[in-house]
Amino acid sequence: QYWRIDYKQLLDTSRLRIHRMKESLQHAPTEKVTIYVCGECEDAEGNHPSWDEFEVQGMIDMDTMAFSCPMCSGELQPQAAEAGQSGEQDIHLRLQSQLERILQALNRTEDIVLP
Question: Which end of the chain, C or N, has fewer beta carbons within 10 A?
C-alpha cells in the first residue's frame, strides 16, 4: 500500500491555517489585568510591590475608598502601560516572531514547481 503526499495542498493548507490563526487572534477579545503598584514601599532590590486587580479587592481603605498598601498604608496606583504598547500588540509581535521561519520557508516554495 502506497501513500502520496500532495505537497501543493499541504503548503496551501499550512498558509490557510496560519491566516485563520492570525484572523482569530485579531477578533478575539483581549483581557487586560490591571496591576496596582505602591509607589512608597520598596524591597531590598528597589522594586515596588505590586498586586493584580484580584488581589487588591480586600485592600480597600474605607475612609478614602481607594486601594491601600498592606505594608505602608500608602495608596496603590494602577501601573502605567509600557510606551504605548498594548497586550494585543504584544501577542501579534510574538506570533510574528514565532512564525517568521515557517513563513519564510513557505514563501521560498512559491517559485518551486511541486510534483
Answer: N
